[in-house]
Amino acid sequence: MRWIADFCADLSLVDWWPLRALLLATALLLLVLLVWRFRERAMRAVLIPLVVALFAVNALIGVNAYFGYYLTLSQALGVAGESTGSLAMLNAQATPPESGMVVTIDIPGRDSGFQARPANVYLPPAWFARPRPRLPVKCLLHGTPGSPADWLDGGEAQQTADRWAAQHGGAAPIVVIPDVNGGAFDDTECVDGVRGNAETYLTTDVPRFVRNRFLARDPGPDWAVAGLSEGGSCAIMLALRHPGLFGTFADFGGLLGPRDGDTNDLAGTAAALFGGSQREFDAHEPSWLLAHGRFPGLHGFFAVGDDDPEPRAAVLRLVELSRLAGIDTELVVIPGGEHTFDVWRTALADALPWISGRLSPG
Predict the structure, then answer these.
(1) What is the pTM of this model?
(2) Which of 307-324 are b and which e, b meaning 16 or more Cβ less than 10 Å from the residue's Cβ?
(3) What is the pLDDT of residues 200-215, one digit of tens each?
(4) What confidence tens digit (pLDDT) does each residue in 318-359 have?
(5) Which residue pairs, CB below 8 angstroms and at least 24 apart, start in 62-68?
């Protein structure tokens, strides 16, 4: 029923202290009852799993609040919002809606053979005009563990795009959120290899599909790629390796480049991702690419929390090298920021005007 959806949408999981206190108090009360009625086997069989479950939910809410992933109960439960619809429904829309709409759609790996999960695509109000306008495109890449939905849930990409569109007569980039890994805990680092041909998927299959299905502008200066964590490393790597595909990139808390782990340490990466080939590793390493090339037509936005040590060291180094390589570069360091969605939401909101200003308006 509608009131249930409204309740779930209003119940915050980030301002979580009242909810966690309630769960904790309930668990402690049940624990007291368990001790009090300890000799009754039937009571123990009911109360013990319930107490364990309450403590587990309590802990999960605390972890979720720290990372800022699910903001409301509706996101955590996967309750569909009014702005989510099928492609057929979107095509049938007769007049531009007041806010943008999201479609979940399969983007086949025709050339890559990559087995991707469904992508999410945000279409701004301007897209619904007849005839269809050719709009610029911004690709958002998630991290690992994760999925495309991360950018809509913890990342609040739809709300951020809607705010921009509302300030610009309904016009905003099409936002494409493809799968980069193939599974929640997989980690391709957006390269072609034994973990899947993710690079070919992201640079061939996805652009072709988006251009043809949504009548977007051709890849090039009017396409941007941005990402968080692993997706941030992917964004700069893909932009440097495919400058004809992306004119702008944004790296939110990524490492120095593709890594088989959570640090900038190179150990094991060449073997795990490139079959031990140092040549292939260098060809995908942003610092090597920046030191051996010039990219005067490229724009790069970097954002990182100042309390996120490994990504902070990586971003500061890449900013320096990007400027030396002729890239139009912007850096935002978020005070007190860690490796969480609190930082990535802020980074996206900061980056969108900067990125949009570098996409041609006509």
Answers:
(1) 0.80
(2) ebebbbebbeebbebbee
(3) 999 999 999 999 888 8
(4) 999 999 999 999 999 999 999 999 999 999 999 999 999 998
(5) 62/16, 62/20, 64/13, 64/14, 64/16, 65/13, 65/14, 65/16, 65/20, 66/340, 67/154, 67/340, 67/341, 68/14, 68/154, 68/340, 68/341, 68/342, 68/345
